[in-house]
Design brief:
Blueprint lengths: L3 E3 L7 E12 L2 E11 L3 E5 L5 E4 L4 E7 L9 E6 L12 H5 L3 E7 L5 H13 L16 H8 L2 E3 L15 E3 L10
Antiparallel strand pairs: 1-5, 2-3, 2-8, 3-4, 4-5, 6-7, 7-8, 9-10
Length: 183
C-alpha cells in the first residue's frame, strides 16, 4: 500500500498550485514549498531542495480548513491519512497499521486561499473514490431492511406553513408497504 511517496510530478490537470506553502507531517515541519492539487495526485515540493512528497487521494480520510489554534498555531488545510506514514515501512500487521493515522497540514502564506484549496482538493478526491467505502445494492436488500424502511416516521422540520398553523408537533407515519419497490 502506497500512502505517501517521494515527490512525483503531477500528471493531468492541476486544479490548484500554491507556492509559499509550508508543509507539516504530524508535528514535523518540512519547510516552505509549492502545493500541487492535481486530478491525479496531491503533491508538495520544497522550495529549497528536491525534497517533497505525494499523496494518493483514496488514502485521504478527511480534509478540512482548520482554524483551531488550540491544536495547531496556524490556519491550515488539514488532511488526515488512513495510515501512519512514519511507520508503514516497519509495520508488519495490517490490522495494526489501519488503527494509525497521519496528519498533514498545509499552511499557505495567503490564508485567504484556504477555502479554494479545500474546494480543489474535494473535487479531485471525488475523482478517486475509495473502493472500500462503496455501498452496494446488496447492503439494502433483505426483509429486515425493507421492514425498517416501512416503519419510518417522517418528522416535519418547518414550524410555520405561512398561514399561521404550527407544524412543529406534526409527524407522518408511513403506510405499510409505502416504500416497497413497484415491480
Amino acid at each position: 500500500m502506497v500512502v505517501m511517496s517521494s515527490y512525483r510530478e503531477p500528471s493531468g490537470e492541476i486544479r490548484h498550485q500554491e507556492s509559499n506553502t509550508r508543509a507539516f507531517v504530524n508535528e514535523r515541519e518540512l519547510g516552505s514549498g509549492t502545493l500541487y492539487i492535481a486530478e491525479s495526485i496531491l503533491s508538495w515540493k520544497s522550495s529549497t531542495s528536491e525534497d517533497g512528497f505525494s499523496l494518493e487521494y483514496p488514502h485521504i480520510s478527511l480534509h478540512a480548513v482548520s482554524k483551531d489554534f488550540s491544536n495547531f498555531p496556524h490556519e491550515c488545510l488539514y488532511i488526515m491519512l488512513d495510515a501512519d506514514v512514519d511507520n508503514t515501512a516497519e509495520a508488519g500487521d495490517d490490522d495494526e497499521e489501519e488503527d494509525n493515522l497521519t496528519i498533514v497540514r498545509f499552511v499557505p502564506a495567503d490564508k485567504g486561499i484556504l477555502q479554494q484549496l479545500f474546494e480543489a482538493l474535494k473535487d479531485c478526491q471525488l475523482l478517486h473514490p475509495d473502493p472500500n467505502d462503496s455501498i452496494s445494492e446488496d447492503d439494502f436488500e433483505g426483509e429486515d431492511t425493507l421492514a425498517a424502511l416501512n416503519n419510518i416516521t417522517i418528522q416535519r422540520i418547518s414550524t410555520d406553513n405561512g398561514n399561521g398553523h404550527d407544524h412543529s408537533d406534526d409527524a407522518m407515519d408511513a403506510e405499510p408497504g409505502q416504500f416497497d419497490d413497484a415491480e
